[in-house]
Amino acid sequence: MAITKIWAVKDDLRRVLNYIENPDKTKEELSDGLKEVLAYTTQGYKTNEKEYITGINCEPSTSLKQMMNTKLSYNKMDGRLAFHAVQSFKPGEVTPEECHSLGVQLAKQMWGNRFEVVVSTHLDKEHLHNHFVVNSVSWVDGKKYDNRKKDIDHFRELNDAICK
């Protein structure tokens, strides 16, 4: 049975405000925290040269721009930029294909109705694991994902049900 963790990706509010006040800046400069987590989770050598990367409500290759455009369209550029979650299996428990499939199912059930998500399966450790980068702002209604205790519990319950 896989274990799960989730935490917020935050950015420096001062940098965000400087961006908003400076029209010459690009969207990518604002999103350093989001850009870093997307770059880390989608590294080619960890994902069999990006074979095991799936976007939900976004294209993996343009997910940063899409996520930032969602934030801009709802004027929600501050606070939590995204959430980074992990689903980790014991060594030998699943194949790379099974790991990725279980991760995509989990992400779709947890966030697929409202949020942009990138699922990346890492094969660089003995224990295969999925990384999820979840936009904190819903593309559907502009509401933020809060990641309250009930959300964390729901994430674990979904994970357990899918893994069974």
From TrEMBL:
Where is each MobA/VirD2-like nuclease domain found?
Answer: 40-164
Pfam family of this protein, just one?
A: Relaxase
Which superkingdom? Bacteria
- Name this polypeptide is given: Relaxase/mobilization nuclease domain-containing protein
Q: Which organism is it from?
A: Holdemanella hominis
